[in-house]
Amino acid sequence: MLALRLARGTHPLVLLRRLLVTAAAAGTGFLVLAALGHAAAHPATAGDSLARLLWCTAPLAATAQLAVSMARTDPAARLQRGMAAAGLGPFRLTLLAATSTALFCALGVLLSLVVFLALRGDLGTAASGTATGSRAIDSGLLGAGHPLPWIGALMLISVIPLTAAVATAFSLRPRTEAGAVDTDTPSTTEAPSGLPWGVALAAAGLAIEAYTSPAAGAAGELLPLSGRLIGSPPGILAGWALAAIGLVLAGPGLVYLSGQLLCAGRPGALRLLSGRVLQEESHRLGRPLGVLCAVASGVYAAGVLHQAAPSRPLGPFTAIGAAVVLACVTVSALSSALESRAARARSTATLRRLGASAFVLHRATALRATALVLVLGPLTWTVAEMATLPLVH
Amino acid sequence: MVAPPDNDVLRAHGLHHTHGATVALTDVSLDVREGEIFAVSGPRGSGKTTLLKCLSGQLVPTQGEIWFNGSPVHTLSSPSRERLRLDRFGWIDTEPHLVPELSAWENAALPLLLRGAGHRAAKHTAIEWLERLDVGMCARRRPGRLDQSQRQRVAIARALVTTPQVLFADEPTAPLHSADGTQVLRTLTTAARSHHITVVLATYDPKVAALADRTIALLDGRRSGAVPETAGASDEESRAACSLSV
Fold it and tell me: Among residues B181, B180, B225, B229, which one has the least CA distance to residue B203?
């Protein structure tokens, strides 16, 4: 009830951010339901349906990540002191955050269920008339006319809010040493340790892919999109997945490295501030940026393969899934940047008090962004090129 | 508008300030002479911090005038006030707000670097000041690994490194243990005296106020009766006698 009451009282802009989670959950829910509809319509090809369902884990993971990053930057979490004064400790606050995440995801999932049923034509004649009129292909793809297993559908879609809530609770769980957000966390000066592992995993993934990829000319059969999953060999998928995990693991190390490069030599105030901040924030920024790079390289590779074999049209479900994943990881990366800005508000105030002009601080931010683009951009491109190399040639 | 006398480095006339609906300052006037240590005393919530922020150009008073070296501060634009703060003023907070990403010497050198000084010269000056304030050994450590009194000394070094014309200190000893506080305050005042820096010191502690040449008392945002000059303290000779070579 408190989660509902808090949601009702929040600022419209904050509510809009929460609605992004709802939208992502709706997209994912629709994909899951579509897989179920496919299974209901084609009981013979169960393997194909299972593969479709498995592909839904990508948007599911992206939705969970978005929910976590939104919960971390939620202004309600910053009201901790007031809540603590009202008797709501860190444990109950975590539960509260998880509950509100589940609430918004459940809303999205219900929305997707309504849209799904309307498109299938299960919601009475009027709805089905307009739906089948405009989206005739969809209603066929969704398994219209075949009875839907209700319990199974509800169980499947309830996985989405549950996953998001559990991920939120795990990410915001009260730590033993740092109770509140506003305590001075001891600065972690050492570099993140994931860089060698990330590089090794990415290299191993690319090697596996190159090793298992069949001879040239078969690219058309390889594109691992949900429509033709059965045709795509597991070796290539495993290679891509490993390379993506490697990029995610290497993210913090790469951000730290960019910071180190920025303040190398004898830096002035501008380079010193931007570089050191990047090094310090690498733990917070690195993971979401790594995910963003991995997704970007995946999309680039898929685009290149699609161009190599343009005979296959992009299916609606692939488009929805890709849109959900892309939007989620972009928003997560942006919101982690916002989170780090909020965490640095005190030192920004200190700098302003010293007389540092807003212009200097903006230039430092721009310098940080440029350094990140210069380091991460070419790397993402290289990984994507190397991932597609054995497939198109 | 009366032109201020020459020996007043800072002069405020009829300051009013309101934070939203809260009245923080009501009709406060004062003048600070060059090279003196000027204390503003009063309990918490009496408007000391607001007064210091107005004087240093961080806040613009709702009403009233502020003159620095004979030129008005209250009419300056926000960028020129920032420039004035960077070039002429130093600021020490109650809490040592250091930039956690930078090491102690980088923190201390930051105002110099922001002014565009060279890396090597800034480092040299910053480390000199850290050594004078007995924190030279932790110049390479980050603020997270220093204790509170070391951090406050680094903050003082950061305020002094540019040898500002006026140093504003807002209850600089409040978070420290009493022995640390006394020592920090003594180093601060001796450094100011030997470098001829004017200090405006806000404090609730009468013992701290006793170190100052002149004190004004604030209560509920008003001046509650000026305390006359401490006998002998404003005397040039006794001032020279108590200035250590810091």
Answer: B181
Cα distance between residue B40 and residue B171, in whole Å? 10
DSSP 8-state assignment for residue A57: H
Residue B57 burial (C-beta neighbours within 10 Å; 0-12, 13-18, 19+)? buried
Chain B contact present for A272, CB below 8 A: yes
CB B72 within 8 A of CB B66: yes
- Exposed, middle or buried: residue B5 (CB in 10 Å: 0-12, 13-18, 19+)? exposed
What would the two tokens of residue A125 be? Answer: 């004649």
Q: Which regions in chain B score pLDDT beneath 50? A: 4, 227-243
Instruction: Give the closest residue to A328 by CA, choosing from A178, A200, A167, A214.
Output: A167
Look at chain B and count its residues. 246
Chain A residues whose CB is inside 8 A of the B87 CB are 355
% of chain A at pLDDT higher than 90: 20
Specify the DSSP element, H or E, that contains B71.
strand B71-72
Report how far apart, in Å, the C-alpha atoms of A259 and of each of A93, A198, A262, A358, B236 are: 34, 18, 5, 21, 51
Give B 30-89 residues with CB within 8 A of chain A: 58, 79, 82-87, 89
- Judge whether A276 is closer than 8 Å to chain B, CB to CB: yes
pLDDT given for residue B225 in this prediction: 65
Which of B49, B114, B162 to mutate against chain A (most A CBs within 10 Å)?
B114
Which tokens is A108 given?
Answer: 């999205």
> Model confidence over A156-178: pLDDT tens digits?
889 999 999 999 999 887 765 44
pLDDT grade for A264, boundaries at 50, 70 and 90? confident
Contacts of A181 (CB under 8 A, 6+ apart): A77, A78, A80
Q: Within 13 Å and on the Cβ side, how many CA atoms surround B216?
A: 19
Which chain B residues in 111-150 lie under 8 Å from chain A, judged by CB atoms? Answer: 111, 113-114, 116, 118-120, 142-145
The pair of structure tokens assigned to A109 is 């999932």
B173 token code pair: 């000893």
Tell me the chain B residues in contact with residue A273 when contact means C-beta distances shorter than 8 Å. 99, 101-102
Domains along chain B?
A: 8-242 (3.40.50.300)
Pairs of CB atoms within 8 A across A/B: 79
Residue A286 CA to residue A60 CA, distance in Å, equals: 21
Alpha-carbon separation of residue B210 from A178, B45, B178, B199, B207 (angstroms):
40, 21, 15, 14, 5
The nearest alpha carbon in chain B to A350 belongs to B97
**Region A285-313 average pLDDT:** 82
Flag if B85 and A351 touch (Cβ within 8 Å): no
Tokens 């951009």 correspond to what residue?
A377
Nearest CA distance, A284 vs chain B (angstrom): 14
**Minimal Cβ distance to A276: which of B84, B98, B101:** B101
